[in-house]
Design goal:
alpha+beta, 6-stranded antiparallel β-barrel, disordered N terminus, single chain, 2 domains
């Protein structure tokens, strides 16, 4: 008896085999990509930069791509729970933190003041960032701290202590808000009750580089 089932031509069978192989290969590739994605999320979730701070699981010590004059790497503390402050909260924090400070200390360079201010803010839960300000005609950059306030944008804070000459001239030993605009003079403004005081450093800003 003749079989009434039609047989597939040889060419069609070959094409079907190729399609099956391509489908299997595609499925395998998707599985591999999925595993890589899961592995990446796992690593990102469990690996953090820097080294832990004993007793403070949310803090990390992170090395910046910058160095003190003696060649030691500049390290800062980052608190993953720190958040951007409002402008009023920032000024309140700086006023409390800065009241007893501001005296220039020989050998205590701008980076030292910057690290101290940055780390104190992070410990208090205020997110802070370290930036380098480059001036036209000046080789070494100047480090300051910037806060991304929630209601007043970026606020740059220069906490370098006053020199004896500056203190003798009547300048208060307080933090100063820096005006950092490439192509313009680097200005330092004092806050209340010295809002009318502006110090023109005479240096012209070339560019800004954020390190953290």
């Amino acid at each position: 008896m003749d079989d009434d089932r039609s047989a597939s031509p040889p060419g069609e069978k070959s094409r079907n085999g190729v399609y099956r192989l391509a489908l299997a290969g595609g499925i395998a590739a998707l599985i591999v990509i999925g595993l890589i994605a899961v592995y990446g999320v796992f690593i990102a979730g469990w690996t953090e930069p820097g080294r832990p701070v004993p007793g403070h699981p949310d803090w990390r010590v992170v090395a910046l791509p910058a160095y003190f004059e003696n060649g030691t790497a500049i390290e800062i503390i980052e608190n993953k729970r720190a958040t951007d402050p409002s402008y009023s909260l920032l000024i309140s924090f700086l006023s409390d933190y800065g009241a007893p400070r501001g005296q220039y200390e020989p050998g205590h360079v701008c980076s030292s003041y910057t690290v101290e201010l940055h780390d104190t803010a992070e410990r208090m839960g205020l997110k802070a960032h370290v930036v380098l300000v480059y001036f036209i005609g000046v080789v070494d950059p100047h480090s300051i701290v910037v806060f991304n306030t929630t209601d007043n944008g970026r606020v740059y804070i220069d906490w370098t202590g006053l020199t004896p000459a500056e203190q003798a001239s009547g300048l208060p030993a307080r933090f100063r808000i820096a005006e950092v605009t490439p192509g313009s003079h680097y200005l330092l403004r004092f806050t209340s009750p010295y809002t009318d005081m502006v110090e023109d450093t005479g240096r012209v800003v070339d560019r800004i580089s954020e390190l953290s």
